[in-house]
Structure formats: C-alpha cells, structure tokens
Specification:
By secondary structure, the protein is mainly beta. The protein has 2 domains: about 130 residues, Sandwich (Immunoglobulin-like), CATH 2.60.40; about 100 residues, Sandwich (Immunoglobulin-like), CATH 2.60.40.420. About 10% of the residues lie in helices and about 35% in strands. Strands 9, 10, 11, 13, 14, 15 and 17 form a 7-stranded mixed beta sheet that branches. A hairpin with a 5-residue loop joins strand 1 and strand 2. The radius of gyration is 26 Å and the shape is extended. The termini are far apart. The C terminus is likely disordered. The site of copper (II) ion (CU) has 4 residues, from strand 5.
Amino acid sequence: MRTRRLGIAGAATVAVLGPLLWLWQDSLLPETYSLMDMGYADYGGGPSAHGGHGGHGGRDVTRLAADAERPADVAVTMVARQERFRLPSGRDAEGYTLNGVSPGPVVRAVQGQLVEVRLVNESVPGGITLHWHGVDVPNAADGVAGVTQDAVGVGERFTYRFVADQAGTFWYHSHQMSHEQVRGGLLGAVVVTPRAGADGRTEVVALTHLYQGVRTLNGFEGDVRVEARPGRRARVRVINTEYGLMPVWVSGAPYRLAAVDGTELNGPAPVRDAAVVVAASRRCGTRPSWWPRRAGAGRGRRGGRGRAG
Ligand SMILES: [Cu+2]
C-alpha cells in the first residue's frame, strides 16, 4: 500500500516537474547557434554566394557610387589618429582626432555639390570608417564597416564621394567600434546650405559631445558666446552626438524650430518658454525671432513640448 502511494506521488512529481524542467532547459540560450538555422537567407534579388535563392543579377554595393568622372566640388582629406589631444576648451583628452582636432573639421557644401573626403587612418587600431549621418549617399559611401566596406586599417585609406543633394545639418562619425571611437571623438559636423544661397543670417553650428564625461559645445565648455547684431536673424544648427535626449531652448526670446534632421519645417510658429527635445544623433535648426543674449543647450526649465521629428 505504502509503496503504491509512494509510486503515485513520485509519478505526480515527475508529471509536474518534468514539463517544467523541459521548459526551463528549452528556454536556455544554446552555447553556439548558427544564423543559417534562423530562416532562409534572403539576398534581396542580388547574387547569392550559394547560388540557390534568387540570384538573378544584382549589383555589388561597392559599385553603387557617385559618378567617378565628375570632379569634386568640395575635397577634404581627413587623417585619423588615436592620441592625446587638446580640446578647443584647452582641456586635454584621450581619444581620437581628425586632422589633429576633435570635433573634426566641419564639412561644408552647397546643395548639389559633389563632396569628396579622403580618409587616411594613421594610427587608429581596429580600423575606422566615416558614416554620413542623415545624408543620402550612394551605398558604397555609407561607411558601415562589414556591410558597405571593410574598416580602414592603420596605414590604409578610403575615399568617400557623394552629391550633397539635401540642404541641412548633418554629422559624420566612425561606424567601426562606435561605442569607443565616436565617444572618443571621431566625429564632426556636415552643413549643406541651399542652392538659393544664404540670406545674410548669422549661422552657428552647435555640436554637443561628452568628452570623458565633460559636456562640450564645439569642443568648448560652459557658455559659448557668438556675437550678432540686434535684429539680425540667426540659425543655430544643433547636433546631438550623444545617446540621450537633449532639450534645447532659447532664453529671453521666442524662436522657431526651422528644421529637423535636414528637413525644413513648413511655416514654423514661434515657440516661447519651451524646449525642443533633440533625440540621440538627431539635428535641429532653431531660429530665434531675434538674437537672444544667450542660447543654451542643457536642461530645460520646462518639459520639452517640441518634438524633434
Ligand atoms: Cu549615425
């Protein structure tokens, strides 16, 4: 009798614990797994390495490039180094430079111009690339290591060519080990002005970045002052190179959110006493209705109602 009861209890335990154990075991990550087991490989109609799926023609991304015959309107050489360097603020930092500085040089073009950037990696271990954030470029110039090109190793070079078709504020940054290289300073601003030409307004690039925890604006710390005549229009091209949200506002004057991510807003209304939240990697152009005594980037006094796109 006792044996029988024990047997039933044992069977019940196994019946309950068995499936639980199985589910637990099944939910564990395997030590290794193959991507090939996760569905069929979709080559998007391009040529497949294995010949099987699709494989009707297609082009190598490295051939999706700007017109090789067209001469460059804007030509820049950027030499990348890993080094100890001095920020424009005067503070020394450990990281990466382009042409000896960080942020790197501002790439300026007029809408429709062909931009050519020759990247030379002098001493960045692990290789680098340059990705043109927000700029529509031919795939071969997109700078995504392992996807559109190989990382540019020490002693190697790579040329990026693209037509800057869209006017606006953009930025570039390394797309190889970004957590290390972008944070360390391999980045800079791209400004494309409209074909129609500037309208005589004051233009300020405001690229924010944390260097080893120190908040900077174009590499400067604290307040950065730009003089402008009263009554003159000004455009501040704000670039958030960080991972988090960044409220931006104008003190002492209403302003207009003129553009978001390289796209002009249609008839923006004046904003007063509210911050615009610029998301990670995004850009926005704010245009004070008149030049304020101080334009700030930092913690908003009021919750940001403005949307950065
Ligand atoms: Cu990016």
